[in-house]
Amino acid sequence: MHAPIVLVGLLVLGGLVYLLIPPLRQRIGWAVAALVLLAPLSVFAGIYTGRQLADYKKPDGWSDAITQHHDYAFLLLWTLVALVPVWLLFAGLDRGRRTARARDVEAPAPAEDGESGSAGSSDPAATGRKVVMFIVGLLALALLLLAAWWLFKTGDAGAQMTWGGVVR
To answer: Is Transmembrane helix a UniProt keyword of this protein (predicted)?
Structure first.
């Protein structure tokens, strides 16, 4: 099943772009959010169908190669499941940052006497949000890189299993 390979690969690439290039976040945010939700579902479907195939092909028990491929896929699944709330938190914080910035742009300029309006940002949570976004962003980056690693290991184990003659 190749859907997890494509979806997780796109998620890793899109997620890296989203995290590392802030001006593009608004343009690709919904696509990456959809991939954050679809990729774990595709991996789960791949695990489920893979189990069915392995049980059909090897009813007396799985070989070590099949077990290794399955275990890597399970680690990939749990990495992606952990990414979902982290990603949604980061995206929500980014949305709040953009909303506050838009509110500041639309606000009237302060008066000359300094009595009305306020200079600077009207967002009291701006500094705290930046710190939390940095920490959550690092966690999301680590999970994306870990997902890329498990995707590689799962795919490599599957290729070794298939081309090595374990599954026929």
So the answer is: yes
How many Cβ atoms are within 10 Å of 2's Cβ, its own excluded? Answer: 9
Please report, for residues 48, 65, 72, 91, the alpha-carbon distance to residue 58 in angstroms, rounded to integers and kept in the order given.
15, 12, 19, 44
pLDDT beyond 60 at 46: yes
Structure tokens at 57: 């092909």
What pLDDT digit, counting tens, does each position of 2-23 carry? 899 999 999 999 999 999 999 9
Asked whether 146 and 25 are in contact (CB, 8 A), the reply is: no
Backbone angles phi, psi at 97, to 5 degrees: -65, -45
* Sign of the C-alpha dihedral computed for residues 98, 104, 105 and 106 taken in this order: positive
- In whole angstroms, what is the distance from residue 89 CA to residue 99 CA? 15
- The whole-angstrom separation of Cα 134 and Cα 7 is 26
Q: What is the tens place of the pLDDT at every residue in 110-132? A: 555 544 444 455 666 777 888 99
pLDDT at 1: 57
